[in-house]
Amino acid sequence: MKLKNLVVGTxxxxxxxxxxxxxxxxxxxxxxxxxxxxxxxxxxxxxxxNSAAMQGERLAVTDADGRFRFLAxxxxxxxxxxxxxxxxxxxxxxxxxxxxxxxxxxxxxxSAFGDEVTVSGVxxxxxxxxxxxxxxxxxxxxxxxxxxRTFTGLAFAAPGAVDGGISGNPSFGGASSAENxxxxxxxxxxDPAFGTVAVSVPQEFVREVEVKTGGYxxxxxxxxxxxxxxxxxxxxxxxxxxxxxxxxxxSLQGESPPVPQVGQDLGYEEYDFGAAIGGKLIEDRLWYFVxxxxxxxxxxxxxxxxxxxxxxxxRLYYAGKLTYQVxxxxxxxxxxxxxxxxxxxVTDNSYGSVGVDREYGSTNLGLAYNGTIxxxxxxxxxxxxxxxxxxVHSPTEAPWYxxxxxxxxxxxxxxxxxxxxxxxxxPYSGSYNWNLGCAGGTSVQDPQDRSRDxxxxxxxxxxxxxxxxxxxxxxxxxxxxxxxxxxxYPGPYNQPFYDSxxxxxxxxxxxxxxxVLFGAYASLRVYDQNSPGETDEQAVFFQDALRIGDYFTLNxxxxxDAFNATGVASGVVANxxxxxxxxDQLAPRIGFTWDVAKNGRSKLYGHYGKFYESVPLDxxxxxFGNEIFNYYYFYxxxxxxxxxxxxxxxxxxxxxxxxxxxxxxxIKPMYTEETLIGFEYEVAPNLALGLRATxxxxxxxIEDISADGGANYxxxxxxxxxxxxxxxxxxxxxxxxxxxxxxxxxxxxLTLNKRFSNNWQLYASAVYSKNExxxxxxxxxxxxxLDPNITSxxxxxxxxxxxxxxxxxxxxxxxxAYGSYVWPIQLTTGFYFQYxxxxxxxxxxxHTSYGADERFVTQRGTAGRTADVWNLDLHLQYPIxxxxxxxxKLIADVFNVxxxxxxxxxxxxxxxxxxxQGLLNDCGGPGTGVGTSCPAGNPLWGTPTQYQSPRTxxxxxxxxx
Length: 961
Fold this sequence. Notes:
This protein is mainly beta.
């Protein structure tokens, strides 16, 4: 179903909730109540709101209960004034409004004559209406911290966030790094294919970053982990801008320890500069913001074989925004941003080197409207487009070879190429990638384009039933998502393929060659992928915030999602698609907040919710696509040479996979279930303490399985015993059993928030957690496999032996603290500190069909933990004032000040031996290997494969006006 049909299918819901396009989750609000000295409500009070972040001023008048509200406020600082004849004027300055947060004010007017003005105390820091857990980073906060140059670094500072194994992608609440949603200016920018970060923007473009780790309302969907919500800057009535430059290189960095299995970093050079400017086209009516930030980075490294290489990356960040106020009640915002990128990478784990050229980067367009309709309705709607061309090319089309044994004959073949003798790691490993000429193996991917078209709309209705106030919000979302996956191994050979005896092996010819060298034979792997995939998604939601009295709120919500995921095989293979309706994905969200101290500064709260997966399109193109794997087996050529397509040896058998995977007709959608309870209290002005407990579990996991040893695959909710082949319908020779997937996460979290005041700010969190089960999620962290919903773990029952235990991203203890102080000499010092205990270590072994590290030799996570790690980062910033609003800030960031060098990852390959039925304790590890009684063992098991980044200094300057 194309987008035009999708729109028709949701038209009724859209018409109910909006008439124009507009953004959601990009603003905050102020609610308040005005009373006299006796506590009685004061109706008719005129409330005036002003801010540099807002076009013009806003007016409101309190209702019969003395209440007022200001909706759709851009993040920033606001000043409020309350005035009623016969009473003194009350002013509330510097009200900090954050994205998707509510500031609740309680104002008291005293009887007075004339224009006597009273300045109220500071606004509360506790949002007494929300059950959401996480963190907010406003511009003042992240500009004063030593963080990465883009918003993704801030996400890791949220309580409970850990590294989940995919660079730049945090893990929240025990979920894998591929289970979050990333929203910029209301646009969903999550990678449609894999569920990871796809778009980033630098700090100079950003006004605020919100990280939701749990407890969020029904309007948010598609995430099993967390939601990262970014708001970029807008213009203003005053002309403002920055010109900035940052630099760092290896002379400003400590030495990185060598890693025998990978190589060693030799240094780098990084340039980062740009400019941003915002202002008015029409005062209080039309604002603009534009920015550009080119960056480049060269990394120098030595491969494990001793070759020196350079990896290069060049990226251009750009952004533009127009904010148009039709009138004080209606606003339209148009956004544009992107990050076109080119890079050259050296392939991982290769003896030599091959530069892989990649071109990617997205263009994002959005148009949004919000408006107040009368006294009781507020409408939002938006239309957005995400588009990302993506391609990967190798400079060589030489066939790719992989050794799968330490057999002397195979070693002689490799050594004849001059590839094995100087490799310090080669003698210990049965796995070794290379091309002719000793370049590392790679693949060709062109095109791998992704796109997402999205429509959103919602309507909020403020109503009363007796003494209960309602804030009812209904909304609808429609998306069309596409992914076009074209890939192959290098080494094309398109003529009919014969073996060395002249026998025809493949009449259609080869498309790429990947040779796996075994002791007595070689296997030619042919990969051919030419598969567009498409998913149509719709969602509707309802939520009602019931305010019962002045201090208690009950939040009731229900979300329903539907989607249809298809590929080119969906019309050929029966049930080769995922198709879920609204009734299949009903997600209740129920929460409460109670101001137990009855002062607007305390909150006891709880929340229960279900969160359904938005399935990435990797499954559309692989399981429902035209992906073909052909396996051909040959005895080695008689002349003693390496096998090639022209001289492959003697063919003796082969088989293939492809052309679509069937789906269980009774399959259920995958979701996370969450319960949390917490308490937060403002113990002093601008200072709040919080305590929260969270429990999460994953349910109805979607994965592919094979009940017949890999001959046929089937997508289902794996659990229980199979006596019949689910693909062929034939009885199995013996029954097979798949244990139910389990991922249970529990945490206890203590937080401290000190908002910036009196020249300092401080935020800290301490978390105790446990993440346990036999299923890590959409990303398989032990093997680095990013194939959401079709990872290898559940393919065969034997892969699950020993799989239950502590999961790879389990960290029992965490402590994080960050903040800043402005000294009397105007020097700003900021810091970020974290302490994390180590992650579980497993013993992994070779699986006959699946290769290295696919088998648990002993129970998962029982072989110890990596070392505890801690680091301290510092930020220094000194301004030089030139007058007329022109300032130069000199900046220095020092990361890992004490140059800690603990291992963050270790080699978990215990053995390269093939498994034996029922045997999990194969010999391996230190003291084993070639020349010992355990030749298949890996003596480097447990040794570091990644360390903490060494001490690094980044210098910068920013000219602001």
